[in-house]
Amino acid sequence: MENPLNKKTTFGNLVLVAAIMLLFGFFVGINGKNIWAEVAPKLGAYVSDDLDFSSVQKTYEVLDNNFDGHLDKELLIEGAKRGLVAAAGDNYTIYMNRSEAEEFNKDLSGDVGAGIGVELGLRNERVVVLRVLQDNPAMRAGVRAGDVFLEVDGENVENQSSDEIAQKVRGAVGANVTVKFLRGEEAVTLTMMREKINNLSLVVEYDNDIAIIRISRFDEDTGKLMGEAAKSIIERDAKKVILDLRGNGGGYVSAAQDVLSYWLDNQVVLEEKGRWTGDSSLKSSAGKAKLADFETVVLVDGGTASASEIVAGALKEYGKATLVGTKTFGKGSVQKTVDIGKGEMLKITIAKWFTPKGVNLNEGGLEPDEVVDLTVDDLNANRDPQLDRAKQL
C-alpha cells in the first residue's frame, strides 16, 4: 500500500510547513522582515501551488503586535498543527501531541500500567468488580466479580467514582495495595502486590459445549490468541461458538483478518477504496478455517466499531454467524498513524472500507439479526439477556 503522506499536498507536509512558518513568523513581529521566502528553499520545504500560507503569518503578526499578554510559542505551533488537521473535517483524522500519542498507543496495546487486574464499573450506584482478568494479582488473591469496593489502603472509597478508585488501585510494580470489599453481607480484605497488568485482548471461556470468545480490542497479539483459542475449542470438543464483540472499538485490520480466517477460507473480508491507496480487497488466509462449520453467534452493541464491524459484517454476509444485540457504531473508514517527530503523531483516514457485499457502514452500522437490549436494570441485577439469547440460539 502506498504511503499517502508521500503525496505533495498531504497533512504531513502541511503540518511541517505551518509549524516552520509560525516559527519564522516570530521574527517578523520584531524586525518586520519576511524571511520565510529566503529560508524555505534552504530547508527543502515544499509548499503546494494551490495553498497560500501568507495569511497564517499575517495572523501571527497581528496577534503578536497587539495581544496584551504572553504568547506561548510552543502552544501556538501545536495549535496551528491541530487546527490544520481538524480543518480536514474528518472526526477520525486527528493530530496528537506527545502525551496524547503515548496514551493512544497504550490504549491500542491494552497497556494499563501496574495494578491488580480488574475491570471496574458502577452497579446500583456502587463501584464493583465487573471482571477479574486472567493471570493477574486479583485472580490469584481470590477477588470475584461482583465484589464492592469499600476501602483502598484504609481510605473509604464508597463515595468515589470508578476512575478515582482505579487510580488508587494502580501504582508502582512491586508495591502492595490492600483493598476491602463487600461480598454479599461479608467484608473481605485482600492484600495484593501490584504487577504490570496482563490485559489480553482475547479470552475464551466455556459453558458446557459452548465456547465463549471475548475480544476486547484487535491488537498485535489477537491473531495468535485466536489460534490458541481455536485449538482449545477443538480439543475440548465444544460444538458451538459465541463471539462477543460488545464494546470492542476496533484496532488493527490485520488482526480482524486473522480472526476471520478461522471461519472464512481465502475469501474477501473487505473492500477498500481510497484516494491514494486505490481500490483493493483483503482476503482471509487459506487453510485456517477450523471453525467454519461451528454454529456461531456474534454479540454486538453500539460500542462495536471499525475492525469489530469488519468481523461481524463478513461473518453475517457469508452466513457464518447470527448477530445478536443492538446496532453497531457505524465506522466504515480506515486510518493510518504516522510519526511526525518529537513523539507527535497524525492519525489519518486513508480509505473507506466496504463489506464483501459492498456496504459501507459509516454512520449506518450493522443491524443485528435479532435485537436484544441490555438495560441498566439488567446490569444492576447482573443479568445479561444478550448472552442468554445467544446461548439459546
Write the layout of secondary structure elements.
Blueprint: H1 11-31, H2 36-43, H3 54-66, H4 73-86, E1 94-96, H5 98-109, E2 114-115, E3 118-123, E4 126-132, H6 137-141, E5 148-152, E6 155-156, H7 162-169, E7 176-183, E8 186-193, E9 195-196, E10 202-207, E11 210-215, H8 222-235, E12 240-244, H9 253-260, E13 268-274, E14 278-283, E15 295-300, H10 307-317, E16 322-325, E17 333-341, E18 344-354, E19 370-371, H11 376-380, H12 385-392
Parallel strand pairs: 11-12, 12-15, 15-16, 16-19
Antiparallel strand pairs: 1-18, 2-9, 3-4, 5-6, 5-7, 7-8, 10-11, 13-14, 13-18, 17-18
Give a description of the structure.
The protein has helices at 11-31, 36-43, 54-66, 73-86, 98-109, 137-141, 162-169, 222-235, 253-260, 307-317, 376-380, 385-392; strands spanning 94-96, 114-115, 118-123, 126-132, 148-152, 155-156, 176-183, 186-193, 195-196, 202-207, 210-215, 240-244, 268-274, 278-283, 295-300, 322-325, 333-341, 344-354, 370-371. With 393 residues, it is α+β, with helices and mostly antiparallel strands. The protein folds into three domains: 4-89, no CATH class; 114-196, Pdz3 Domain (Roll), CATH 2.30.42; 202-374 and 383-392, 2-enoyl-CoA Hydratase, Chain A, domain 1. It has a six-stranded mixed β-sheet, sandwiched between helices. Strand 13 and strand 14 (278-283) form a beta hairpin. Helix 1 (11-31) packs across helix 3 (54-66).
